[in-house]
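User: Hey, quick favor. My workstation is busy. Could you predict this chain's structure for me?
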Amino acid sequence: MDLERVNRNGRTKRESWRTVLTLAYQSLGVVYGDLSTSPLYVYKSTFAEDIHHSETNEEIYGVLSFVFWTLTLIPLLKYVFIVLRADDNGEGGTFALYSLLCRHARVNSIPNCQLADEELSEYTRDGFVLLDKNSGSSLKSTLEKYRVLQRVLLVLALIGTCMVIGMESSHFNFCFFGSVGFGAFNVKRASPIAIGLYNIFHWNPCVYQALSPYYMYKFLKKTQRGGWMSLGGILLCITGSEAMFADLGHFSQLSIQIAFTFVVYPSLILAYMGQAAYLSKHHTIESDYHIGFYVSVPEKLRWPVLGIAILAAVVGSQAIITGTFSIIKQCSALGCFPRVKIVHTSSKIHGQIYIPEINWTLMLLCLAITVGFRDTKRLGNASGLAVITVMLVTTCLMSLVIVLCWHKSVILAICFIFFFGSIEALYFSASLIKFLEGAWVPIALSFIFLMVMYVWHYGTLKKYEFDVQSKVSINWLLGLGPTLGIVRVRGIGLIHTELVSGIPAIFSHFVTNLPAFHQVLVFLCIKSVPVPHVKPEERFLVGRVGPKEYRLYRCIARYGYRDVHKDDVEFEKDLVCSIAEFIRSEGPEYDTPLVQKEEFGTGIEGLEKNERMTVVGTSSTQLDGIKLREESDLSDTVGTSELREIRSPERPRKRVRFVLPDSPQIDRAAREELHELMEAREAGMAFILGHAYVRAKRGSSLIKRIVIDIGYDFLRRNSRGPNYALSIPHASTLEVGMIYHV
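Assistant: No problem, here it is.
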């Protein structure tokens, strides 16, 4: 039996049960590394101070009942069977939900969106289409009408993301030190089923009675306020549930469902029941040593299990760090985090990345939290509040997804948020009461990351609005003539811009300050779209700027928020081939399925109407298109471009040839234009970048001046520039400064 799954290139492929089961096995170490360490510290944290043992087993049974039903309702019912279905073309996490909502309600935070982006295959795959007339149309129109609601939605997504980072910073310490303890040994289950069954049958076979929800009522009735406060410790049994959804892109929905339902869930239940069975016969001993999981393990297995527990903590911490890297990459791609260095550690496995700046930041945060707390109880309080906050955010976003994306009734969404929101609100209140006992840490960390994200997003948005308002008129360009009023020399000049239409104002600075310019000019925009992946055959949008004889082109390279950006050599080749394919197919008498001509408007900008853009794929997808063949010519290492100061003198000249398809025939004008493009590519490419200095305009409020002049300026100066995203050699780069008054 085969199963269908959509891969990262957007194609549907068949997967056998063997593949699904292999993915399920692999997910045990990555997805559940955090969740499976929870038996180490749940009982210890719950019975820390708020409640104490009595002569009966009511407290122990009550805690076990809470653990059982919490694991059943939140990870199993909510995440495994409901939330996992809200994947964004195979990707999960808070930003995946936000991305879904952006596409279906058009509340996108990315400023340079186009209507052409909605033609991408991943926008409407899996039966998700934009709403027309149904029960959610009024909600959709309300979100699109009020900007304040769009900002609230963005802030909600950012809070969930920042809380995940804050949770991972604090929970890394908690996982590790919870496994080795401070003066007491707590270990992860080596074989939770075997040890759990042993403890149940050896100490208390009747412990299964605690699974009745009646014991939760008796627990709260007897312990009252102390029992309510102890819910913050019980909450730790579901830490890592969000990781199932966040790491969905590395596995599959079915594999995670199988792994959790048939392996992780019963193992956790048996582990907690085994601890409860042991504690029910030793509850009169007041030492904390006898509260942990270690003492419920048979004595001969304690040291081996201790070693396994330490290794499990290392695996769990690695999953935490990797998850943080993935979150930061998504935020950066969607314009909500400064550009950082992203190193792809594997050329074969998608999604394996390393971010040095974030790695060092996490290390410093972990050391600071460890030195400051020195106590697993306060570490647990810090982790618990962050966990439940993320879950509340997911519940809120899911209620919108149910209406806007799944086209279900508003009543169903209200029932979802009321049922799960009530449970999570109960745990949230118990965690919030311990704000001064360590729970303030994730709040403080999340607030710092939230400020960084929002300041960067606000500054980027204002900068883009300034670019749109300062665009140069097409009449100005036409008045310059085909030579643009300057000397045109051989070579290709790539002008990096964030605009998807019109002529950027910084181009007039280039023309004014440079005595010569390249014979072929390309306005290059590299942008992210609110989908996880863009298929290679839909990568580029290519069009003209001005008449043909001007040799000015616009090329928009579109990437999903989880796509891997290519290196400069392959990107340059794809870029030149896409322009050549556009030239070849521009004539009305020739069109192929590989190149689809569309009359796209400019979407949000709405200023340049009926600008013609053509969808062109990468060179590897153009099976019947133009191919680029390059051969190094070591006899001439200088090249013929007169703009030699912006080219790399060490780069040898390349002999470039376009391999044209046999038929149909290409007209003479197109051949001449292709010949010019070939000569320009031989001469070399230069990347012209605008270096923006953003300042608040006169009359701005004090808060805006602080945000722009201090906050955004600091982040911009300490972040990676756009030239890094292209892996451009510095010798081939020219920067022109410009002051932005926003």
